[in-house]
């Protein structure tokens, strides 16, 4: 693991309380969103079956998957509040990332179903009751916008963003259903129903793939996209008393929690507490990194070039 215990401790718990409170608020908002989404999904499914509209049926299926997604998101937010244990020393904050991964994969599976049904409808158009589609679509859009508003006012974690993505996809589905209903009522052209379903599927696909890429990046412990590793290394090496920085790693523990570990070559271990305080202050203010582990290494060789840091090499480690 990345944490070392060689006479150092740089964990800053000042941000922990904020993250904990944010997760509590996110969990409550997710629960409310879940109830609203699940309640309307049943109504929309029945209306879609009665009216013969694929746009409504696919949107209802989407909302049912959203209900499971929101349920997973709420459960993950609850798990993320559990304290660290002997088995999970970082706690269960990564549950939020795993929920976002599952939700994005679920969305891709749903898109496959919608595309297949739309192609079947294009080959064999079905009669659709346009008036019912418009009415149910308007109610669905209002509920989706309300849920999206509730989620957008919470913490913007990967988990809540995944849930919000599902809800916005539902809103697009409702817009497509309303548009299909209007076209059918005014022109009687039935293929508009599956065509608009395909359009919504394409729009959701782009967002789902973007979220999936970000989730995988976190799980692979990649450097957070908003942080430049080289800049962090230079700033650490510029701290007074630091001769060189190596074995530098920056990764995301969970949404909003970035961790860092590094080895700092120094001349005098007696200055370590001052160096540690300066490094922690700099990393927090300049790069927003609060979970910090630094290991001092006392040099017994000829002086190095001040301010040097070693980037990762081909083997994943940094040169000594």
Question: Could you characterize what this model shows?
Answer:
Helix content is 62%, strand content 11%. The protein has helices at residues 16-51, 54-80, 95-123, 130-152, 158-187, 192-219, 229-237, 272-287, and strands at 10-11, 242-254, 257-266, 291-298, 308-309. By secondary structure, the protein is an alpha/beta fold. It is elongated, with a radius of gyration of 26 Å. Helix 1 (16-51) runs antiparallel to helix 4 (130-152). It is built from 8 helices and 5 strands. The protein has 2 domains: 17-219, Cation efflux protein transmembrane domain (Alpha-lytic protease prodomain-like); 229-309, Alpha-Beta Plaits (2-Layer Sandwich), CATH 3.30.70.1350. Strands 1-4-3-2-5 form a 5-stranded mixed β-sheet.
């Amino acid at each position: 693991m990345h944490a070392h215990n060689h006479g150092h401790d740089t964990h800053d718990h000042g941000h922990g309380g904020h993250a904990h409170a944010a997760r509590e608020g996110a969990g409550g908002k997710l629960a409310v969103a879940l109830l609203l989404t699940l309640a309307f999904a049943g109504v929309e499914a029945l209306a879609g079956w009665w009216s013969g509209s694929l746009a409504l049926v696919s949107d209802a299926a989407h909302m049912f998957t959203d209900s499971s997604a929101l349920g997973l998101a709420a459960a993950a937010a609850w798990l993320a509040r559990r304290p660290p244990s002997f088995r999970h020393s970082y706690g269960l904050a990564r549950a939020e990332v795993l929920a976002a991964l599952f939700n994005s994969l679920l969305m891709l599976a749903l898109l496959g179903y919608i595309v297949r049904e739309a192609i079947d409808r294009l080959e064999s158009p079905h009669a659709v009751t346009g008036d019912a589609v418009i009415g149910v679509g308007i109610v669905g859009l209002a509920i989706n916008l309300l849920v999206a508003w509730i989620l957008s006012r919470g913490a913007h974690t990967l988990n809540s963003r995944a849930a919000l993505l599902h809800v916005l996809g539902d809103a697009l589905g409702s817009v497509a259903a309303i548009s299909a209903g209007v076209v059918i009522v005014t022109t009687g052209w039935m293929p508009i129903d599956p065509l608009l379903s395909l359009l919504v599927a394409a729009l959701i696909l782009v967002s789902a793939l973007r979220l999936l890429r970000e989730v995988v990046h976190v799980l692979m412990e990649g450097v957070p996209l908003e942080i430049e590793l080289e800049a962090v290394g230079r700033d650490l090496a510029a701290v007074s008393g630091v001769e060189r920085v190596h074995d530098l790693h920056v990764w995301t523990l969970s949404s909003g929690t970035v961790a860092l570990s590094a080895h700092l070559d120094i001349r005098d271990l007696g200055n370590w507490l001052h160096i540690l305080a300066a490094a922690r202050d700099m990393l927090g203010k300049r790069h927003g990194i609060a979970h910090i582990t630094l290991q001092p290494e006392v040099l017994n060789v000829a002086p190095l070039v001040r301010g040097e840091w070693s980037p990762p090499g081909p083997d994943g480690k940094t040169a000594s």
